[in-house]
Amino acid sequence: MQRVVITGMGAVTPLGLGATATWSAMREGRVAIGPITSMPRDGLRFGIAAEVQGFDPLAHFEEKKLILLDRVSQFALVAAREAIAQSGIDFAADGLGENTAVVIGTGIGGEQTHDEASRRLYAENNPRTHPLTIVRLMANAPASQICIEHKLTGPSFATSSACASANHALAQAFHMVRSGVADAAVAGGSEACITLGVIRAWEAMRVMADDTCRPFSRQRRGMVLGEGAAVFVLETLERAQRRGAAILAEFAGAGMSADAGDIVFPSEAGAAKAIARALADGGIGIDEVGYVNAHGTGTPANDPTESKAIRRVFGAHADALAVSSTKSMHAHALGAAGAIELVATIGALRDGVVPPTMNFLDPDPECDLDYVANAARERPVRVALSNSFAFGGLNAVLALRRAP
Amino acid sequence: MSSVQDTVFDIIAKESGIDRARITPDATLKDLEIQSLDAVQIIFEIEDHFKITMPDRDPKFDTESVKGLIETVEKLLAEQATQPVP
């Protein structure tokens, strides 16, 4: 079994274009939730989201290539370029790229392509569907496009588990590198889900907030949709040290579970099982953990359930944990959420600063942990967890250690 | 029994699969063992049937009674009726 480290990260998020910009915004507690700008708001019930701003596809891709890329793949490719550049890894050397895995999670896939194709077909009665529709909308397009751009030919695929897609992707990549199935991996999540159809579908479930995202706060009114991508380079500790790479964090463990219960209502037992398995997988003692980046959607159901699950696993140590939901700032990017939140988790380990839960008003008696309300906090963290609990009851938790 | 109540009872029985005879105005959704997803579907069907939009908050399982739902529907229908036709 190899020790696995992260040597590169890249991000395209509502908080900034780039992982550094995203992390700086999280430290500052900047909230990127606001009125939707990418479509007319009159067809929407609430019309708020966290959108990626200032992203110019033509600044990153030639027009001819852009024809192949839904926004979800654009985000993933730009984030992957940043991660690979930061890691300084050379996939061409020693045939490394031949056995580098690419695993990218997405909850929905090429939604904008799908939306546009449906509009032409049903609204305009235009029977001519664009011939590249499938290539753009397939859920594995982000992973495939990264493989092609960087000539990576290891085991590669997409994972899809709604809001846990990115954590499942990162868990698969981690386990492949740790076991030696792959020599390195490029992994993360991407989502570009802000279309009229998707927003209306979420609104119809009555889990959306009409004001903003206030995780763990008594006045929370639900979740807010976001979008974006984050991608990471995973390699063995041995390789990273040999090539003198700067190590961002050690990827210590991953735990997964299924609730096998309600299709939407979260389960304390299922969440606790995933957390406990991540700790066991990484050989981590509960008192080593200092920070938990919570799933923290801000829905009435998630936040108390997650708080109880954390308490169930950590017992008395739960009161010593800092727990925060950065969704209060970048909102819920569904299949990219876990990846964007890993930027926060790595930031906490590296800088000794825990990002806040913003928009926090009054505490809820049902949520009784330390949520780092409204301002980042300096606190050295040796081990941190990142939780993702999906609709459908599929859970994935990542455990990271400070760089050795 | 008002026709609104009749229709709401029908919708609750159909969407949640419970025996219509169990439904009373004073029963809460929790009493009727209606799950969250069923409750959301019930509200959707009520909205669709009456062409109204219910306030967008989670139904309160412990406290929201069937009577509360019916009153909300009747209030929204009354508001609609008093509005001038555009």
From TrEMBL, chain B:
InterPro entries cross-referenced by the UniProt entry: ACP, ACP-like_sf, PP-bd_ACP
Domain of life: Bacteria
Pfam families assigned to the protein according to its UniProt record, in alphabetical order: PP-binding
Keyword set, alphabetical order: Phosphopantetheine, Phosphoprotein
Sequence ranges assigned to domain Carrier in this UniProt record: 1-77
Entry-linked PANTHER family: ACYL CARRIER PROTEIN, CARRIER DOMAIN-CONTAINING PROTEIN
Protein name: Acyl carrier protein
